[in-house]
Structure formats: structure tokens, C-alpha cells
Amino acid sequence: MNSIIAPVRKHLTDIHEWQKLGEANIFPPESRIELINGEILDMAPIGFNHAGHLKRLNNLLTLLVAGKAIVSVQDPLQLGDLSEPEPDFMLLKPNPDFYSSRHPVADDVLLLIEVADSSLTYDQTQKLRLYALHNVPEYWLLNLNDNCLEVYRKPKGEVYAEKTTLYNGDNITLSQLPEITIKISDIL
Predict the structure, then answer these.
(1) Residue ranges of the alpha helices (H) in 24-171?
(2) CATH code of residue 167
(3) Residue 85 lies in a domain
(4) Is 59 a domain residue?
(5) Contact 155/97 with Cβ under 8 angstroms?
(6) Is the pTM of this model over 0.70?
């Protein structure tokens, strides 16, 4: 007797349903989940090293961009109708209501940063593809495993045309805020 195996079906959701689920408190407040390409995905837990580097970035960049950009830490970013990731860190274009009437979209992003240790492969592939597709102009991946900063610029389709890897001793100038240069040693 032959049995037929039915294909696994995914039930995808969009931004509007996702936001309704949040408003209805379907997920516990401590849930670490995000919507990526219509799928609700668990996010990796944040360890001590990850949290410490995020605080370091926050302290440094908040001082450097005062009056030039809005600092956003682990807040939603709406990318199309099917994705709402929560990047570790973003610098956003100034907005009079500080994005209290809507979530920022890719056009609002000056710089997006993910801090990665256990999520490194995912951030180098899936997240990179998502950010490039939506034209996030500059994506930094603070790679804690290899102690370096991967800088992605010039999105083109599903990739970035420019990738630079920087280490202690190097400096980086923000492409969208060229008056700001950072020592890599200050963030690693």
C-alpha cells in the first residue's frame, strides 16, 4: 500500500495581521519573535557579550549623532508587507514625532547594525538579503565571533555591491552621515 504524504503547508501572515496579533497580546511580552518574509520566527537569546556591545554602540553613537539622527535600539522596522524585523540598532532620519505614529521603513534608515555571535550565519545571509532587497543603504554586522565589523553598502537586488571587513586599528565613516568617523576599537 502506497501512502501519499501531503506537503507541509506554511501559513504566512502579513504586517497587518502581525500587528493585530501584537495588539491582541497573543504573544507573551517577553517573546523574542519577529516577522520575516511572512513567517513568525524566534530570535536568538541575547547573551552578555552581545548586550555589552549593543550598550557600547548605543553610548557612542547617541553622542555622535545628537541632532542629526534618531537612535533606535531593538525596535521594529517595517520592510514591505511581509517583514518586520527588530534590528539591534538603527540610526534613523530625524522625524518630528520620533516615529510614534508609524514604524520606520527602509527609506528612513541611515544605518542598520546587527550584533552577531550565535546568529552570525543568519545575519550574513537571510537578514543581509532582506535588508538589501529593501534598499537599506548601509548594513553593519558586528561580528563578535571573528572580532570584526562587516560593512555592507550599495544594495543591489538581494546583495550589497560593496563589502568591507574592518578590524581594530581601522576607522569607518558613515556613508549617510559623512561627518562622523568611528574607530573600530571603540565598538569592538
Answers:
(1) 48-64, 120-122, 128-133
(2) 3.90.1570.10
(3) yes
(4) yes
(5) no
(6) yes
